[in-house]
Specification:
Blueprint lengths: L12 H15 L11 H8 L3 H14 L2 E3 L5 E3 L8 H9 L3 H25 L2 H17 L7 H13 L4 H9 L1 H16 L4 H17 L3 H26 L5
Antiparallel strand pairs: 1-2
Helix pairs in contact: 1-3, 2-3, 4-9, 5-7, 5-9, 5-10, 5-11, 6-7, 6-10, 7-9, 9-11, 10-11
Protein name: Transcriptional regulator, GntR family
GO molecular function: DNA binding; DNA-binding transcription factor activity
Keywords: DNA-binding, Transcription, Transcription regulation
C-alpha cells in the first residue's frame, strides 16, 4: 500500500517563477509582443537571485512562451503558432488577391465576435482610445483618407477590449496579414467617391454601439463594415484573376 505514495518534492525557485510568468501570460497581464522586465528587475520584484530568474527564462523560452530578440530584451511570444504566418506573410506582402480575400473572410469571423465581446467588456481606457482613434479618422477623412495604421489600431483596440487572451494572441500572430488587407482595401476605397464617408460612418456606428454596451448592434455593424471590405476585395480579385471569381 505504501508504494503508491511518492515523496513530495519542494519546488525550485525557478519553477515557481515559471509558473507565475505563465499565469500572467494566460491572464493577459503580459501580452503578446510585450517586453518582460530584465533579469535584474525580475530578481528585485520577486525577491530571488538572478540565476533563478535566468533559469526560469530559459525554461520559458524552451516551452515557447518567451523569445529573446536581437538587440536585447526578452518578449512574450504569441501562444498561437507564429511559424504558420511566415509563408502566408510572403503571399500577403505580394498582395495576392486570393489571399487578401481569404483573410477578409477570417476577419469577419474573428472581428464580429470581437465587437460583440468588446461591447460587453470594454473598460474606460479602451473606450477612450477608440474614441481618440475615431476622432483622428474623422479629422483625416477631410483629406484623401486616414492613415491605414490608425484604422488597424482601431480594430486592434476592439480585440484587446474583449479581454480574451487567446483571441488577442491569434490576432497578434497574423496582425501583419490583417494590416495588409486594410491597406489594400483602403487604397481601393479611397479611389471611389463617397466611400470615405461610408467607411467613417461604419467606424462611428461600431464605436457608438460599443460605448452603448449594445453587443448585437456592435456585431451587426462590424459585419456590415467587413462585408463591404469583402465585396471590394472580390472586385479587386476579379480584376487580377477573372477566372477565379
Amino acid at each position: 500500500m505504501t508504494t503508491v505514495f511518492k515523496p513530495i518534492r519542494p519546488k525550485k525557485l525557478s519553477e515557481e517563477i515559471v509558473e507565475q510568468i505563465k499565469e500572467l501570460i494566460s491572464r493577459g497581464d503580459l501580452g503578446p509582443g510585450q517586453r518582460i522586465p530584465s533579469e535584474r528587475e525580475l530578481a528585485t520584484f520577486l525577491g530571488v537571485s538572478r540565476p533563478s530568474v535566468r533559469e526560469a527564462i530559459m525554461v520559458l523560452e524552451a516551452m515557447g512562451f518567451l523569445e529573446s530578440r536581437q538587440g536585447g530584451g526578452t518578449y512574450v511570444r504569441s501562444l498561437a503558432d507564429v511559424t504558420m504566418a511566415d509563408p502566408l506573410a510572403n503571399m500577403v506582402e505580394q498582395r495576392d488577391p486570393r489571399m487578401l480575400y481569404a483573410l477578409t473572410e477570417v476577419r469577419i469571423g474573428l472581428e464580429t465576435w470581437s465587437a460583440y465581446l468588446a461591447a460587453k467588456r470594454a473598460e474606460q481606457p479602451e473606450l477612450d482610445r477608440l474614441r481618440e482613434l475615431y476622432n483622428i479618422m474623422e479629422k483625416q477623412s477631410s483629406g484623401n483618407g486616414w492613415d491605414p495604421e490608425i484604422d488597424f489600431q482601431f480594430h486592434l483596440t476592439i480585440t484587446a477590449a474583449t479581454h480574451n487572451t487567446l483571441q488577442i494572441h491569434v490576432l497578434n500572430t497574423i496582425q501583419k496579414l490583417f494590416q495588409t488587407t486594410i491597406m489594400v482595401a483602403l487604397g481601393e476605397f479611397y479611389s471611389k467617391e463617397g466611400y470615405i464617408e461610408q467607411l467613417l460612418n461604419h467606424h462611428r456606428e461600431i464605436l457608438e454601439a460599443i460605448e452603448a454596451r449594445d453587443p448585437e448592434r456592435a456585431r451587426e455593424w462590424m459585419l456590415k463594415h467587413l462585408t463591404l471590405v469583402e465585396e471590394k476585395l472580390a472586385i479587386f480579385l476579379q480584376k487580377k484573376h477573372p477566372e477565379t471569381v
